[in-house]
Design a protein that fits this description.
The chain is α/β, with parallel strands linked by helices. It has a single domain, classed as Spore Coat Polysaccharide Biosynthesis Protein SpsA, Chain A, CATH 3.90.550. The protein contains 8 helices and 7 strands. A 7-stranded mixed β-sheet has the order 3-2-1-4-6-5-7, with helices on both faces. Helix 2 links the parallel strand 2 and strand 3. Helix 1 packs antiparallel against helix 8. The radius of gyration is 17 Å and the shape is globular. The chain starts with a strand and ends with a helix.
Length: 229
């Protein structure tokens, strides 16, 4: 089956990288953390079982720092659209012209693994939509089959993005679209705020103590900055 993995990222710079983590991290530290997360994301997405890995980026100029991170097999697209919903919709519409299914992820979930990406694709064998909710009321992963294309504008237009109502509003709209079966995947932890960062440090420490796999670059950065482990 043709599967497209769409990765939404920003070119790392002090003006755009993880700005909501201020003042817990200085601008250069936010860039350092974001680049560490991107390196881990690149490794996980490269291991995912997909036909295409599409890096959709935003930022001024060319994505030179992103290209240094996402080496190997990848297609590059600049994000297009007036808001996040329009950009996500455009990415899905482009991918699903040729692929049977597509999964879209962001770059704020450092614990997301290739196995969870694979599980999202597999869930699309029995449903048209897959969602991985986040604790803040949003979602960190959304997948769709090509058969869902006519309905996707309803899922992305006029959503209160960057609010605690994103997931609930999306689920309400899915309930209004009986033609779309959906699967809700396990919780996806994202990092947006200083509180999230403290929780992440605790999660990484717990994983290390129990010999569970952790995102290498992100863990190393936080050890240096906060002595998290």
């Amino acid at each position: 089956m043709n599967r497209a993995l769409i990765i939404f990222v920003k070119e790392p710079d002090a003006r755009a990288a993880k700005t909501r983590l201020a003042p817990a991290l200085a601008p250069e530290e936010r860039v350092g953390l974001y680049e560490a997360m991107l390196h881990d994301l690149s490794a996980e997405t490269a291991a995912a079982r997909c036909s295409r890995r599409i890096v959709c980026w935003t930022g001024e100029g060319e994505p030179s720092r992103l290209r240094a991170v996402f080496q190997g097999r990848a297609e590059w697209r600049r994000q297009r659209g007036a808001d996040l919903g329009a950009r996500m919709l455009n990415a899905f519409q482009e991918a699903l012209k040729t692929d049977e299914s597509a999964v879209l992820i962001g770059s704020d979930a450092p614990l997301l693994t290739s196995a969870e990406m694979d599980a999202a694709f597999e869930s699309l064998d029995r449903a048209e939509i897959a969602l991985a909710p986040c604790p803040d009321g949003g979602y960190g992963l959304i997948g769709a089959r090509a058969s869902a294309l006519p309905f996707l504008p309803r899922l992305f237009e006029n959503i209160p993005w960057s609010s605690a109502d994103v997931l609930s509003e999306t689920l309400n709209r899915l309930a209004e679209l009986p033609a779309l079966r959906y699967v809700q995947l396990p919780l996806c932890f994202d990092v947006d705020t200083p509180d999230d960062l403290r929780v992440l440090c605790g999660l990484l420490k717990g994983r290390a103590l129990s010999n569970q796999r952790t995102p290498k670059q992100t863990s190393a950065f936080l050890r240096r900055r906060f002595h998290a482990e």
